[in-house]
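[STRUCTURE TOKENS]
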Amino acid sequence: MFVFPVRVYYEDTDAGGVVYHSRYLNFMERARTEWLRAAGFAQAALKQQEQVLFVVHSMQLQFKKPARLDDQLQVVSRLIEMKRGSFSCQQQIMCGETMLIEAQVKVACVDADSFKPTGIPARLKIALESS
């Protein structure tokens, strides 16, 4: 499990003062990036050293409650499944004890040049499975 804090800024909100729905995707993307970084894998380094990139293959979202300006959120990421060339995770956006968003995200590993599917580097698999 990895927890990433996010503060809601004015730019994240719509005219009604709540977080615009697409901003939640940004919050989850940042959390996945920081999860990899915390495991020792910066995305730029993965591209340079391993010739791989990660792309979102599919995502299922459930919007439960809105976040508002100045809320302090936590994006909680958990590995659900690891395959040869993809992994799936559950991501929840929480405000305190209240779940705002729940998502299932499948992330595919692709070759940095061709964008064709490729295997996830073994050392990254090990790091994510143990986090």
